[in-house]
Design a protein that fits this description.
By secondary structure, this protein is α/β, with parallel strands linked by helices. The protein has 3 domains: 338 residues, TIM Barrel (Alpha-Beta Barrel); 172 residues, Glycoside hydrolase family 3 C-terminal domain (Rossmann fold); 115 residues, Immunoglobulins (Immunoglobulin-like, Sandwich), CATH 2.60.40.10. It is built from 20 helices and 26 strands. A 6-stranded mixed sheet has the order 11-16-15-14-12-13, with helices on both faces. Helix 3 links the parallel strand 1 and strand 2. Helix 2 packs antiparallel against helix 13, helix 5 packs across helix 15 and helix 6 packs antiparallel against helix 15. The relative contact order is 0.10. The structure holds beta-D-glucopyranose. Beta-D-glucopyranose binds next to loops. The site of beta-D-glucopyranose has 6 residues, from loops.
């Protein structure tokens, strides 16, 4: 029987209470919850167990047995968990994964996470997070793909493919959940859960495409967000959920609310009480309520009173059952407990190491890296050199410090017998202002041939509800850099972070600067390889790094304004008298450009771009243009270069950004090698949404730009005709 028929057949046998039971999700594998499962009053559990594998699989199986064998209709549970960037094998944070621009590898990493999580009885992850975020104060910027809609879309789609595979019913695959629908990353002031105001055109051009990409990649579920979106909380927003997602896009999976986001429509000020919150959520298109109990306590009465139409309940339950069928849960609800031997296999650790390597972004290098092979001694300094839990980053419920290899451990291992590795943390932790360890750090650095300095944010400074009003290195870390600046040795700073930080205060004091994000379980070996030149950095920034907090939001795809600053008009020294010539869109006390732009990242080689050629000067609607460029590795080192294609529509009926990323390609280049790289640019890539929400392409002149960052590009023009 086809899934639709099986769903219909089952729905016909369900009581109203059983149907609503499917729409309820509880957290924790308690006995009370097991009873509710037996009564058919729960359709899903998250965090069913915190125990170690294989016990975890056993607990999940117990709950499945309660559902399958002891409830009247035997409908299996869908068991959820936040498997955000790996399970036991922790991958770099998603923002770091985005920096790799390597989508096949991102897909492989998600498949690893699915294999490990499924072995512990998990059927469903609440990932990928595809909220475009342009404000680094927001702690959850760590969980997504950064500031760009195309990069975030590709990242999300790759993760969906990795989690679900070609057949989500395969025992090693799990359902994905694209979240948080929608606009959550645009929280005012970068403060989590805060209000968002996003005009429809911007929503459709910037915040919705990544969700559409996940739906197109087959995502079985979506999560509605916490935020108030233009006056209607996303969890009660019929425009976003019912009109755009379910009607326009034809999404056939189900929508789960975020944690208590149904009930939170009361404090938001949309609903007066829990029954009203339940009604608003179902009417808007939420199919399952996470944790709060508005559905379980009130939906039966609401339906009986005619306040919630039965068709909406049938639609919601049909979607949930449909996903359970597609996951194969009716046919094989249990997890083979012996499968937990897949955790942390060599193959999984290898994926984690490769992704950590590719996610690191080299921002500065005064020939200090790679470290010379003949060093006699190396100073390893900084609070994050040996912080196994912090390098895992936020949202790693199943990651363990004891599985993690730190940079200190990895450098000791790699240099054993040939170089003396000396450790002096300087600061006990990232947030510390206790400078008592500075003298020792200075002494050790001065005694060694070079110093590598591991700085940044601990894992607790990013993630949900972990927002910051300042973006500088916390504690006395800038002072630690300053203290080492005059020891007369090369100082290499490696920054582990969940967000862009303002590095203006340290960049001049260090000889090299590498951003490693929170690199995960295998961060140490990846960094040792990069520092020692076994591999070359190849990541590019998925988000702009501001010079100072006062610039935020600063992102590459901004509008031009009526008074763009001319080149070179970057910041006016304080005290300069204003004259009319200076009335540009700038700051008086700081450059207006970011410190490091989107797409930027160096390697140990040198990629140069030449010969930008278009297949023709014009194309008509529906046609495709070939954009070709020659990329050359002018060095003696093998590198991988992320070639980026941007477009600008300089005149349109709604003004367009100065640049928009339309495609990218990771290109391996042997020493001295030149390659022709071609992109197919169709007129559909030039579309934007007008004020009525229609997707349009307007004829006229377009600029195309190709390069190794958003700011360093070759340019050409073409025309689109009717
Ligand atoms: C977060 C979600 C997460 C959920 C379940 C919420 O607080 O916003 O991203 O999936 O909890 O843990």
């Amino acid at each position: 029987m086809r899934v639709e028929e099986r769903v219909r057949e089952l729905l016909n046998r369900m009581t109203l209470a059983e149907k609503i039971g499917q729409m309820c999700q509880v957290t924790g594998g308690t006995e009370e919850h097991k009873d509710l499962v037996r009564q058919g009053r729960v359709g899903s559990i998250l965090n069913v167990s915190e125990s170690e594998a294989p016990d975890r699989a056993r607990v999940s199986n117990d709950f499945q047995a309660a559902a399958v064998k002891e409830s009247r209709l035997g409908v299996p549970l869908i068991i959820g968990r936040d498997v955000i960037h790996g399970f036991r094998t922790v991958m770099p944070i998603p923002l770091g994964q985005a920096a790799s621009f390597d989508m096949p590898l991102v897909e492989e990493a998600a498949a690893v996470a699915a294999r490990e999580a499924s072995a512990c009885g998990i059927n469903w992850t609440f990932a990928p997070m595809v909220d475009v975020a342009r404000d680094p104060r927001w702690g959850r910027i760590a969980e997504g793909g950064g500031e760009d809609p195309l990069l975030t879309s590709r990242l999300g789609a790759a993760m969906v493919r990795g989690f679900q595979g070609p057949d989500p019913a395969h025992p090693e695959r799990i359902a994905a959940c694209a979240k948080h629908y929608v606009g959550y990353g645009a929280a005012e002031g970068g403060r989590d859960y805060n209000t968002t105001w996003i005009p429809e055109g911007l929503l459709r051009d910037v915040y919705l495409p990544s969700f559409k990409a996940c739906v197109d990649a087959g995502a079985l579920t979506l999560m509605s967000a916490f935020n108030d979106l233009n006056g209607i909380p996303a969890t009660g927003n019929p425009w976003a959920l019912r009109q755009v997602l379910k009607t326009e896009w034809g999404f056939g999976g189900f929508v789960v609310s975020d944690w208590a986001s149904v009930e939170e429509m009361i404090p938001h000020g949309l609903c007066s009480d829990k029954p009203e919150a339940a009604r608003a959520a179902v009417a808007a298109g939420v199919d399952m309520e996470m944790v709060s109990a508005c559905f379980s306590e009130h939906l039966v009465q609401l339906v009986e009173a005619g306040r919630v139409p039965m068709e909406l309940i049938d639609d919601a339950v049909g979607r949930i059952l449909g996903v359970k069928f597609q996951l194969g849960l009716f046919d094989s609800p249990y997890t083979e407990e012996a499968r937990s031997n897949v955790l942390l296999t060599d193959g999984h650790l290898d994926v984690a190491k490769r992704l950590a390597t590719e996610s690191c972004v080299l921002l500065k290098n005064d020939e200090a890296l790679p470290l010379p092979g003949d060093m006699g001694s190396l100073a390893v300094i900084g609070p994050l050199a040996d912080a196994p839990v912090d390098q895992l980053g936020c949202w790693t419920m199943d990651g363990r410090g004891e599985d993690t290899v730190t940079p200190l451990q990895a450098l000791r291992e790699a240099l054993r017998g040939r170089c003396d590795v000396r450790h002096a943390p300087g600061l006990p932790d990232c947030r510390s202002t206790d400078t008592a360890g500075f003298a020792e750090a200075r002494r050790v650095a001065g005694d060694c041939d070079a110093a590598v300095l591991f700085l940044g944010e601990d894992a607790g400074l990013s993630g949900e509800a972990h927002c910051r009003a300042f973006l500088d290195l916390p504690g006395a870390q800038e002072e630690l850099v300053a203290a080492l600046a005059d020891v007369g040795r090369p100082v290499i700073a490696i920054v582990m972070t969940g967000r862009p930080l303002t590095l203006t205060g340290i960049v001049e004091h260090v000889n090299a600067l590498l951003v490693a994000w929170h690199p995960g379980t295998m961060g140490g070996p990846a960094l040792a390889d990069l520092l020692l030149g076994v591999s070359s950095p190849s990541g590019k920034l998925p988000v702009s790094f501001p010079r100072t907090i006062g610039q935020v939001p600063v992102y590459y795809a901004h509008k031009n304004t009526g008074r763009p600053a001319p080149p070179g008009k970057e910041g006016v020294p304080v005290g300069t008298p204003l004259d009319p010539e200076s009335f540009f869109s700038t700051y008086l006390d700081m450059h207006h450009s970011p410190l490091f732009p989107f797409g930027y990242g160096l390697s140990y080689g040198a990629a140069s771009y030449s010969n930008l050629k278009l297949s023709g000067p014009a194309l008509s609607m529906g046609e495709t243009l070939e954009v070709a460029v020659t990329v050359t590795n002018d060095s003696a080192v093998a590198i991988e270069e992320v070639v980026q294609l941007y477009v600008r529509d300089p005149v349109a009926s709604l003004t367009r950004p100065v640049k928009e990323l339309k495609d990218f390609m990771r290109v391996p280049l042997a020493p001295g090698e030149s390659r022709k790289v071609s992109f197919a640019l169709g007129t559909e890539h030039l579309a934007f949404h007008n004020g009525d929400g229609q997707r349009i392409v307007e004829p006229g002149v377009f600029h195309v730009m190709v390069g190794g960052s958003s700011q360093d590009v070759l340019k050409a023009e073409f025309t689109v005709t009717d």
